[in-house]
């Protein structure tokens, strides 16, 4: 009788240990699936926005008209030294690409306003990114999308396109 009870106890302990491992494993798999699903959802949203009819590019004319439009934030992501050498697009603020993510994520609204004389954008604020030729501004656009900004555009021609149009017009 004692052996039988001992065997049953050992079996019950083994069963509980095994089932708790199975439950933990199942829990980890569920978390992993949820994480992958969430990442895919963000990625698919980005792909859909890029492949839709709206390519999320801003033209020279659109950027030119932003000078007096305070509802759209035009952000030049070049380095300050580049701006001194070439000039700036009127109405733009300068946040270097290397500082963009931390500035959009961690800067308090009051500090943003004091530094840039513009309200800190919320996730729905229209943003247009510019650089010299469109490469860094595309990276900035992707950073903003990753941070959850939903209305972001890239002035693909950047300063070179701006300068060309200003000189010819």
UniProtKB/TrEMBL annotation:
Organism the protein comes from: Oryctes borbonicus
Matches recorded under InterPro entries: Rhodanese-like_dom, Rhodanese-like_dom_sf
Protein name: Rhodanese domain-containing protein
Domain Rhodanese: from-to ranges: 68-167
One of the Pfam families matching this protein, by short name: Rhodanese
PANTHER family documented for this protein: THIOSULFATE SULFURTRANSFERASE RDL2, MITOCHONDRIAL-RELATED, THIOSULFATE SULFURTRANSFERASE_RHODANESE-LIKE DOMAIN-CONTAINING PROTEIN 3
Coiled-coil portions: none
């Amino acid at each position: 009788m004692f052996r039988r009870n001992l065997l049953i106890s050992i079996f019950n302990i083994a069963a509980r240990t095994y089932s708790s491992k199975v439950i933990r494993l199942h829990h980890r798999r569920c978390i992993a699936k949820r994480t992958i699903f969430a990442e895919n959802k963000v990625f698919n949203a980005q792909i859909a926005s890029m492949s839709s009819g709206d390519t999320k590019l801003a033209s020279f004319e659109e950027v030119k008209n932003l000078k007096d439009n305070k509802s759209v934030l035009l952000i030049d992501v070049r380095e300050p030294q580049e701006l001194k050498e070439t000039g700036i697009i009127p109405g733009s603020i300068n946040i270097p690409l290397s500082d963009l993510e931390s500035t959009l994520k961690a800067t308090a609204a009051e500090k943003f306003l004091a530094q840039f004389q513009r309200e800190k954008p919320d996730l729905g604020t229209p943003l247009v990114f510019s650089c010299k030729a469109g490469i860094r501004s595309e990276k900035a656009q992707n950073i903003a999308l990753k941070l959850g900004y939903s209305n972001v555009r890239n002035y693909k021609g950047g300063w070179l396109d701006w300068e060309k149009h200003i000189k010819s017009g």
